[in-house]
Amino acid sequence: MTSTTRPVSNQLCEFKSHRLPILILLFLCFWSFFYNTGAIEMDLMEARNLVTAREIISNDNWLVPTMNGDVRLAKPPLPTWFAALVSLTAGGTDDLSLLRIPNAIAATLLILFTYGLCWTMSRDRRWALIAAVLLATNVLMIRMGQRATWDIFCHSFMLGALWAFVDGVRNNRGWSSFAVCGTLMGLSFMSKGPVSFYALLLPFAISYLWIFKPAEVSSKWPLIVLAFALCIVISSLWPLYIWEFHPEALLSTMDAETDAWANRHLKPFWYYLKFPAYAGIWLVITLAALVKPFVEKRLKALHNYRFLLLWLVLQVLLLSLVPEKKGRYLLPVMIPLAMLGGVLFREIMERFDKGMQAKGDQWIIALHTGLVSITAIIFPLVLLYHLDQRDMAVSVFFKLAISAVYLFIIVAAWFLFARKNLPGLFLLTALQAASISMFFMDSYRVVGISNPEYKRMTQIESSMLPPEVRVVLMENRSGIEYVWDLNRPLYVLPVEQIIELLESDATIAVISAGSPADELARKVDGILTVTTIGRFDYNEDRAKKTKIHLSLVSLQK
Predict the structure, then answer these.
(1) Can you tell me the distance from the alpha carbon of 102 to that of 94, in angstroms, rounded to the nearest whole number?
(2) CA distances in angstroms from 72 to 65, 245, 251, listed in the order given
């Protein structure tokens, strides 16, 4: 059954060139990946990357990176080199907002590569834009694009390689497209080893050959071999250097990483079935796009949709087979997920434009508009509640302004729905996502950090911790965040070695869970002097009963 209501004539998303879509995407990428990223506190993965970048500079050794003085080979060094180059360019800065710029650029490239891949596959700028917007405002994509870790680089380079491959095959390109493909695959390996080859390339290749058949690529085998040869050359240069000079460290790292994949962060097989939730404000569209019978009834050309759905299913399956599971490992899944959502939204948009929408189309758009409205109610309420709970002085003008913004969004969303103006509703949803990202980043320390006792070691005065004092960690843990915060090496020592240092008349700074006095006093002969420099809590969510103590400790015999 179709509607007889005449649709609003709207050419908003009919683009004659790539200029406007690219400008829209760059606008959204600014708010998603670049805006006020220094507000976010550093996490453990960032600390590992940035401590390594800092030591690359201080040691003037770019080929053998270290972390807290130990050789660091768990990840290839390309993202760390980017962070180190930014730090050098900015005069050795530790400003997180600057050190995160390479990741924001990589995230932006991934969005543009998504647009390019969609365009090459369909010659449809509207679909390309919708898919790229869905990805640019994806919750997981925003999170990974804002932090200085490795994942965004390997998947961005790999998606660029896949775009170059499809462009070479579909448009009968010569060696240049495949040389770009091989180069980008090599850069992906240099960013996080084989991760993206397994999570992105392998399911893509199986799906592409299954849906589009080998005939499409059969004439390109020599050029495909060229691409992989170039990839192998680029990928192998740094590992071969390490194998030549540090073979034991490389083998030890490989054993540790293999053990981690099998024995750490273990989750059940179905852990990754939560992947649609990361679509955020596009959840309704995304869930509907995964219902194959619903979508296929609306499409004339099915190959692209079936390819994307198979690509996504294989990704989730392959990731689920690995015992080690983390939410951020789903990042490559977000790419075909956004493209699938774009396929459905594009088709429904066209059906509305032609006045041919069915009842199912109307229900999907109505539910999407409802989700936009619910989000526009909940977000400002939660934000203002947290501001009030933290006793933040918020002016009446700010409360009225943010309420007016989201009230306008609700009214505008239903107005556009009533007018059947889906391009306008699409852009309004994208702007709402950008506004949420902006307000959240501006209020991160209020909304994102719910522990009122949260405190790091970044503001310790140098007079309280002289540079000649050795800092040791009593517990058997990495403590790499403390290394970053203190900007000095940290020695992880058992109690027995700490006592040996004290008995040699050394004054040391001890990092411990709780006061170190009780445990050390039981094992030393003499009077233990403990001066607490500070108590710290690194948990952003809730206060811990046992604080992290940083104490000056000496022994009087």
Answers:
(1) 14
(2) 5, 14, 12
